[in-house]
Each structure stands twice: as C-alpha cells, then as structure tokens.
Amino acid sequence: MNSTKRLFLKASALGAASTLIPSAAFPNIIARPASPKKLKLTFKPYTLELKHVFTVAVSTRTTTPVVLTQIEYDGVVGYGEASMPPYLGETQESVMAFLSRVDLSKYENPFELERILGDVDAITSDNTAAKASVDIALHDLVGKIMGQPLYNIFGYEKDKTPMTSFTIGIDKPDVVRQKVKEAEEYKVLKVKLGRDNDKEMIETIRSVTNKPLTADANQGWKDKFQALDMIHWLKDKNVLFVEQPMHKDMVDDNAWITEHSPIPIITDEACKRFGQVAKMKGVYHGINIKLMKCTGLREANKMIALARGLGMKVMIGCMTETSCGITAAAHLTPAVDWADMDGALLIKNDAFKGMTVVNGKIVLPEKPGIGIVPV
Ligand code: MG
C-alpha cells in the first residue's frame, strides 16, 4: 500500500473527513469534503417610535432603541431582538459591542441551545437584553429547522394563552380617556402608578370604563402604610394585582405589604433572573418575567417552572419591543397567570408581523419558530 492510499484509508476511518486529502491522486474517487455548516450572527440598530409619549414613575420618552439580530444556518434565518429602555442601562452601542464578542461560528449544531447560550451568558455578568437577542434568534432558527412553532417545542397549548393587558401611561385626564378609548379591544388595562396623582388616574379611567385593571407602581410608593391603604382602595376599584409597590431594595417593607395585601403583589424590578426567583418567595406573591431582563426564552421557561414549584404567581411582561421579542415571549404565555404583551402595540414602526390580539386574548402564529414575518 502506498503512502497516499494509507492516508486515504486513515481519513475514511476517522469519518469526519476534515483532513485535507490529496485529491489529485484519486481525482474520481475522493471529493474535497464540504465545509461544515456553521452558525452566523448579524445585527443592526433600529429605533422604535412610540405612538404616545410614555411616562412611568421614573421616566418619560418618545422612542426606544433596539438592536435586531439574525442567526443564519444552512440557509435558514432566525430573528431576534434586544430592546433597551433607558432605565435598564443597556444601549445600542453596548449591545452591539457585546454581540461583536459572540462567536457563533465555532458551533456546528444549533440544537445545542444549553451549551451555546451558556457560553454567551458567560461572556459578561450583565448585558441581558443583548443575550436575549441571541437566545430569541436561536430559538426561532431551531423552530424553523424543526418545522414547529415554539409553543409546540416548549410543550404548551396554544389555546391556553391568557388575555393581555394594555398599558395606559401616566398622562393628563383627557389624554388618558383617549387612550382608554383606543384600547377598546383589550379586556384588561394596566395602569402606571407611583406618582402623586394615582387616585386621579384611576378615577379618570373609571369615568370611561369598568374593565378590570392591573396597577404597576414601578417602585414609586415611599411608605408601606400609605401603600397598603392605596392597595385596599385599588381593590375596591377592581384592580386585580399590584406590581412592585416599593423600591426593590426595601425587602422588609415589600414583604409586609405582601403579607397584608388583599390582592396579589408581583415583583418586576427585584427579580430579573433565575437565580433570584427563590429569594422572592415570601416577599412577593409572584414574579413578572421579561425576556430582556432574564436573557431570553430558555431562562424564562426555567423561571416559570421554578416559580410554579414554589407556589408563586407568574406573569410575563415586556419592554417596548417589535413583534419579534413580543411574539417570542407570547409562546410561553399558556404557562402563566397574566400577560402584559402590549409592547409592539405601542409603536408606530413595527419591523415584524407576529402575534395578534382577538377579543383581548393572545393569538399565536402557527408558522415554525416564532412565526413572525418581516414587514
Ligand atoms: Mg413593571
């Protein structure tokens, strides 16, 4: 056996065929092996324009910066998104700087989600929105490769989606009344509180509708006794639950409110990631999970399971996002108590078509992956 033939047999025995074989010696037998399929990440900045000036307890704005991602593999493209409302500390620059450090070309199997997303998470200790943009695109990609919508892959029933609330931002009474009229489609309205006109906001809404409300104080209340008085008043106004009454670091005060509250108290700002969920038990009745806080669908689904195991309530919320991030999260909503999936409804220039709301209820697309279509 000559040396060229021995090399050929050795390469065949290895199977992987990545060894460079001298094809000139056997031009009709040995083809140069195809290069392995690899994941490729690309991204671009995009600015969301809001329909209304959006005011919460701590800020006011008219735009939200996002970064749109794509992961390509063997001709299939998955879409993802990072949304960065200013109070969370990420920017388009920080997200793109992070994504520049993510090298997906070293992975050949997109189904290794735990390994790939674990490696991405290990790059830094924060950058949760940037990480979510990779997670969302990768889930969209594998769903498309499998030919299955994400709710099937996660094992949830698409008909079990809840109603979504629609957020009414803090504003002047005539604008609030107008916003409520525009929200006719929605059966539950979410009200931003935590300033000195809370009762006026609620009374204004109650002057035009009797729909159930949810309230988000966004850490705005400063005194636990006043907060509890307000919560009792809100219950009488048919408010279903209250989100983050006091500052997230005021653990004892929030726990005291939860202990005495006649309606569920849900945390948002105090619980971002899986590792914090168990600490919320006893301080709040439940948690508000958002993909941009928790690095994406993979971790969000684990948080749902853990919170359920602890006997806690679960809601899924969102930032101002395109229908990409919103619809991705919506695939998990059959597993939660409440959903606040209105982020794409508050913007003028959505980049995708995705989930819809019919009679106030979330309707998931049935196409593979997230099921969104660029517009
Ligand atoms: Mg909130």
Topology:
Elements: H1 3-14, E1 40-56, E2 59-73, E3 76-83, H2 92-100, H3 113-121, H4 128-146, H5 150-154, E4 165-168, H6 173-182, E5 188-192, H7 198-206, E6 213-216, H8 224-236, E7 239-243, H9 251-260, E8 265-267, H10 274-280, E9 286-289, H11 291-294, H12 297-309, E10 313-316, H13 323-330, E11 338-339, E12 352-353, E13 356-358, E14 361-363, E15 373-374
Parallel strand pairs: 4-5, 5-6, 6-7, 7-8, 8-9, 9-10, 10-11
Antiparallel strand pairs: 1-2, 2-3, 12-15, 13-14
Description:
The structure is a single chain. With 375 residues, this protein is an alpha/beta fold. The strands form four sheets. An eight-stranded parallel β-sheet has the order 4-5-6-7-8-9-10-11. The protein contains 13 helices and 15 strands. It folds into three domains: 1-34, no CATH class; 40-147, Enolase-like, N-terminal domain (Enolase-like, domain 1); 152-374, Enolase-like C-terminal domain (TIM Barrel). α3 packs antiparallel against α4 (128-146) and α6 packs across α7 (198-206). α6 (173-182) links the parallel β4 (165-168) and β5 (188-192). The N and C termini lie far apart (62 Å). The relative contact order is 0.14. The model is unreliable at 1-23 (pLDDT under 50). Bound molecules: magnesium ion. Magnesium ion (MG) is lined by residues 216, 218, 243-244, 268, 288. Magnesium ion is lined by residues 216, 218, 243-244, 268, 288.
Poorly predicted ranges: 1-23
User: What is the helix fraction of residues, given as a range?
Assistant: 25-40%
State the end-to-end CA separation.
Answer: 62 Å
> What value does the Rg take, in angstroms?
24 Å
Average residue-wise pLDDT: 91
CA-based shape: globular
Strand line-up across the major sheet:
4-5-6-7-8-9-10-11
Instruction: Give the total of domains.
Output: 3
Q: Note the total helix count.
A: 13
CATH architect. name of the largest domain: Alpha-Beta Barrel
H-E string: HEEEHHHHEHEHEHEHEHEHHEHEEEEE
CATH class of the largest domain: Alpha Beta
The CATH topology of the largest domain, please?
TIM Barrel
